[in-house]
Amino acid sequence: MRRAAAVPLAAAALLLSGCGQLGYLSQSLSGHLSLISSARPVEDWLADPALKPALRERLLLSQQMRDFAIAELHLPANSSYRRYADLKRGAAVWNVVATPELSLQPKTWCFPVMGCVAYRGYFDRGAADAYAEELRREEGLEVIVGAVPAYSTLGWSNWFGGDPLLNTFIAYPEGELARMVFHELAHQIAYAADDTTFNESFATAVERLGAEAWMQQKASPQARQDYQRGLERRQQFRALADATRRRLQEVYAGSGDDVGKRADKARVMAEFRADYQRIKTEQWEGYAGYDDWVARANNASFALLAAYGELTPAFEALFERLGRDWPRFYAEVKRLAALPKAQRRAELAG
Which residues, other chains included, contact 296 with Cβ-Cβ below 8 Å and sequence gap of 6+? Predict the structure, then answer.
C-alpha cells in the first residue's frame, strides 16, 4: 500500500515517559533530531543549479500544495513542509503494530502528553524488527513492521523549522503527494491523546477531501484521470479488506474453541487472498501495488487499516453537516478531541 501508517510520533513528548524506556527514548530523540537537522529550506534547494529537474518540479509542486492547504483548506500556516531532506533511506520511521492471535485489538503503548497509541516507532529498521520478534516470541502476538514515509510532530517541531518534506514521499504521484501533505498537517489541528482511530480517521478525512479539492482545481486532466484510477483501486481494496476484517471479528467473537477459530481464520484469510487475486487480474490489469500488504496481512494489518478509516465516514458527514466550512469543522473536531473517549465517539456517531 501507499503507506503502512502516517501516524504522529512526537519525540519531544516521548522524553517524558520515564526511565523504564531510556533506550527507546534515546533512539526516538536522536532519530528525530537527525531528521530535522538534515532538512534545508526548499528555496535553498531550488537555488542549486545542480538540482535534478524531477526533484525541482516536485519541490515546486509541494510548495503550491502547501499554499493551497493554507488558503483553501485552512490548515496551519507555519514552517512545516517548507524544508526538504534526503534521508538516504526508504522510510522516515518503521512502526511496530501488534495484536493477539485471535483478536483485532491492537496492543497499545502509553506515554504522558501523547496518551496511548497503537504503534511503537523506530528510526532504525533493525531495531523495529528486533522488537517485533520479541513480541512474537515472548507474548505470542501477531506483528507487522510498517515502513512509514512521514509522521507529524503535532506542530511541536515548528520551533525548529517544522516537519520537513522527505525523499520518502516527494516522488509520489500528484494526488498521493497532496494527500500526504494534507494528512500530516491535519494532525496539527486536533489530537486526542488516547484515541489513535479518532486521530487517524480525522486526518484521513482531511486528506481525502483536500486532495479532491486540489485535483479539481489545480491538477491537469491526465493527473485527474490517474488519480481517479488509483482512487477506484483504493476503494475496491478497502471494501475487500473491511469485509474481511468484519468476518474475522465474527470468528473471534464466536462461541467456538480456539482450534475451530484458527481453522475459520485460515479459511477467511485464504478467501481474502483469492478474492484479491481475482480483482487484481480481472479489474486492475495486474496492478500489483497491494501485493506486499496482502502477502504479509495478519490481524495487526487489519487493525491498523481500521484505525485509518473506521471513523472517516463520520468525519466526512460532519464536514457536510457544517456546510463544508473548514474552520467550523476544525473547531468541532477540537471540541470532540477534548471529550472523554466514550462521549467523543458517541457524539461523532450521532
Answer: 144
| 106-130 tens-digit pLDDT | 998 877 666 778 889 899 999 999 9
Please give the tally of structural domains in the chain: 1
Q: Residues 309-346: pLDDT tens digits?
A: 889 999 999 999 999 999 999 999 999 999 999 999 99
Global model pTM greater than 0.85: yes
User: Within the chain, what is the greatest distance between any pair of CA atoms?
Assistant: 67
Looking from the CA of 174 toward its CB, the CA atoms found within 13 Å total 23
Q: Looking at the domain assignment, is residue 6 inside a domain?
A: no
- Whether 164 maps to a domain, the answer reads yes
Q: Residue 49 is placed in which grid cell?
A: 543549479
Query: What domain range is 190 assigned to?
Result: 11-349
Classify residue 2: in a domain, yes or no. no
Residue 4 in domain = no
Contact between 207 and 180 under an 8 Å Cβ cutoff? The reply is: yes
CB–CB of 212/79 below 8 Å? no
